[in-house]
Amino acid sequence: MNLTDYTRETLRGLQGVAVVVETLKSDAEADGLNTGDLQTDVESKLIEAGISVLPHEQWRQTAGHPWLYVSVNTIKYLASYFFSIDVQLKQDVSLPRDPSILTSSATWELGSIGFAVPQSFPDKIRESVNIYISRFITDFSAVNHPSQ
């Protein structure tokens, strides 16, 4: 089993996920990238694909507490943005040497770094995040809805 297969398997049996989009820096928001828009983009794509987006109370009652974490870190320098994007599925895991130790850890992840000029920056980030969410949906569906 290769690494992609292994991480994909960690999605098997999930009933849905909560979505957390990290708050963006103020200069990124001033140049048109909005945390709320990213949150809406991610949730809409998941719902469209038939993946439940869990409200907080339902998430708290869901085994493993799975959550999809989206982080966009930016540095604005002169006429460019340098950025990193990280999309992770985090869920509860325990240590084989001591199963009483339970923590949240990323079991599936995609990320990249790049740069953009301020005019194209918001669209480039949203497009990249959407590509990663599409990949998550593909992997999730492969192990949870194999007939599709």
Report on the architecture of this protein:
37% of the residues lie in helices and 34% in strands. The protein has a 4-stranded mixed β-sheet with strand order 1-2-3-4, with helices on one face. Helix 3 packs parallel to helix 5 (121-144). It has one domain (3-142): 3-Layer(aba) Sandwich (Rossmann fold). With 148 residues, it is α+β, with helices and mostly antiparallel strands. A hairpin with a 2-residue loop joins strand 2 and strand 3 (80-95).
Can you count the helices?
5
> Which CATH first-tier class would you pick?
Alpha Beta
Instruction: Please describe the biggest sheet, giving its number of strands, its sense, and whether it closes into a barrel.
Output: 4 strands, mixed
**Structural class by SSE content:** alpha+beta
Percentage of residues in DSSP E strands: 25-35%
Task: Give Rg in angstroms.
Answer: 16 Å
Summed over residues and divided by their number, the pLDDT gives a mean of 93
Q: What is CATH's topology name?
A: Rossmann fold
Tell me the series of helices and strands, N- to C-terminal: HEHHHEEEH
Question: What is the β-strand count?
Answer: 4
| Helical proportion, percent range | 25-40%
Work out the count of structural domains: 1
The end-to-end span amounts to 22 Å
From the 3D coordinates, which CATH architecture would you assign?
3-Layer(aba) Sandwich
* Outline: globular
Largest beta sheet: strand ordering: 1-2-3-4
Which regions have little confidence, pLDDT < 50, spanning 5+ residues?
A: none
